[in-house]
Design goal:
Layout lengths: L1 H19 L15 E12 L2 E6 L11 E4 L4 E8 L4 E12 L2 E6 L2 E10 L3 E6 L5 E5 L1
Antiparallel strand pairs: 1-2, 1-3, 1-9, 3-4, 4-5, 5-6, 6-7, 7-8, 8-9
Protein name: Lipocalin-like domain-containing protein
Keywords: Signal
Organism: Flavobacterium anhuiense
Length: 138
């Protein structure tokens, strides 16, 4: 009977230890996969410590919204609808995610952004050079 109590206490202690430990290696990084197609939704910046976001002016009225597609192969496709006939121009490049940084390269031009939010429904990034915030939705 005494050995059962000891085993119970050991099992309970081990269970509490395992559930109380956490992995701090990800430094707040989300585990949601970044691959997917995102529709451009809002853009903005931080003014006096507050986010100020507006509907993306890049989205032309009457056309489908511009988009960013991040493929499993690390290809990035930027879709831009423009003109009176809503002609679609797709620009292809590559992307690399390193922790909470997202770097997109098109040709010889690279842009690195902080991933501010990544969920199953939203990707919010802030350009490290310009400070511009871009919100995409799935």
């Amino acid at each position: 009977m005494k050995s059962r109590k000891i085993l119970f206490v050991l099992a309970l202690s081990a269970g509490m230890f395992v559930t109380s430990c956490s992995n701090d290696d990800n430094e707040g990084e989300t585990i949601v996969p970044i691959q997917g197609k995102y529709n451009l939704s809002k853009t903005g910046t931080i003014v006096n410590g507050q986010e100020v976001l507006v509907d993306a002016p890049q989205n032309q009225s009457g056309c489908p919204g511009d988009y960013l597609e991040l493929k499993l192969s690390n290809a990035a496709v930027i879709g831009d609808y423009d003109g009176s006939n809503c002609a679609l121009t797709e620009t292809t490049g590559t992307y690399v995610r390193s922790h909470n940084d997202l770097t997109i390269t098109v040709g010889n031009v690279s842009s690195t952004s902080d991933i501010m939010n990544l969920t199953n429904k939203e990707l919010k990034i802030k350009d490290k050079t310009t400070g511009i915030i871009t919100v995409y939705t799935r």
